[in-house]
Backbone:
């Protein structure tokens, strides 16, 4: 799990524990109000414990007081059992008791909450629900479809299914719209989210708005996504090449983002309808760096 969500999860689970304890206190008060005999025994228990503590401090004999305490504890236990009373704290997750971890490993409840956050942050607008199963084509006779199917297979099996071991950092796919790049982008995003891998799926137009709001210090939901652009494990930029070019923003922020993610070995996937030369004409030859075969999978249709 990435650190980006650590504070949110800590606050959530701290709140859950406090709610569980407060609910438990309220429930216990109701039980004691309905069982005055038990309430009196508990008062006697506390008084005996206090007496025992004082005797220990004074180094006095403890046997008689310890016997009394054991006797009252036995009576309390017997009363609770015979009346089937339950004083246990009712946590949202009884397994981890709202700690989020069980035997040093993330509890399933924590994984579910983490995945919920991943999906909440996965896109600016609604993320298409397309999956690899939706876009798999049976038409392998056509050369173009065969190439597309091969790319889909690579992205599913070598990237999504083996994300941490995948040798590529950048993925750049460009060419005509018939190559179904948007469908591939959504399928990759959904496959990774299902594996609790953080994804930010964004069109180039939306991404530039994130950069623009950050550059102008606007406190908007878009500007607050800027940190996630750099922190998510997979950034997917769809339809690159049709966003507006703003001075000191578009190229500068785009390239600094790509540079930082490459340096941090965080994966970035770019899809564009432009061909290779058009991309170079628009962004300059420095764009070629991100297509280097040493760390990139680049396919031009």
Residues:
């Amino acid at each position: 799990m990435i650190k980006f969500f650590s504070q949110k999860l800590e606050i959530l689970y701290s709140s859950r524990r406090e709610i569980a304890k407060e609910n438990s206190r309220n429930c216990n008060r109701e039980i004691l109000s309905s069982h005055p005999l038990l309430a009196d025994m508990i008062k006697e228990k506390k008084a005996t414990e206090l007496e025992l503590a004082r005797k220990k401090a004074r180094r006095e004999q403890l046997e008689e007081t310890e016997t009394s305490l054991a006797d009252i504890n036995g009576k309390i236990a017997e009363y609770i059992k015979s009346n089937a009373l339950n004083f246990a704290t009712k946590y949202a997750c009884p397994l981890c008791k709202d700690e989020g971890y069980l035997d040093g490993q993330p509890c399933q409840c924590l994984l579910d909450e983490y995945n919920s956050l991943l999906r909440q942050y996965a896109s600016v607008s609604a993320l298409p629900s397309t999956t690899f199963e939706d876009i798999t084509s049976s038409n392998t006779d056509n050369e173009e479809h065969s190439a597309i199917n091969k790319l889909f297979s690579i992205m599913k099996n070598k990237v999504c299914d083996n994300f941490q071991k995948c040798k590529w950092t950048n993925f750049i796919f460009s060419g005509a719209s018939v190559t179904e790049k948007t469908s591939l982008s959504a399928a990759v995003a959904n496959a990774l989210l299902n594996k609790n891998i953080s994804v930010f799926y964004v069109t180039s137009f939306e991404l530039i708005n994130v950069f623009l709001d950050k550059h102008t210090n606007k406190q908007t939901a878009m500007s607050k996504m800027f940190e996630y652009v750099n922190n998510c494990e997979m950034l997917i930029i769809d339809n690159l090449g049709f966003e507006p070019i703003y001075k000191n923003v578009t190229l500068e922020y785009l390239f600094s983002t790509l540079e930082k993610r490459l340096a941090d070995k965080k994966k970035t996937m770019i899809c564009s309808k432009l061909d290779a030369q058009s991309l170079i004409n628009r962004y300059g030859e420095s764009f070629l760096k991100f297509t280097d075969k040493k760390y990139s999978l680049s396919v031009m249709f």
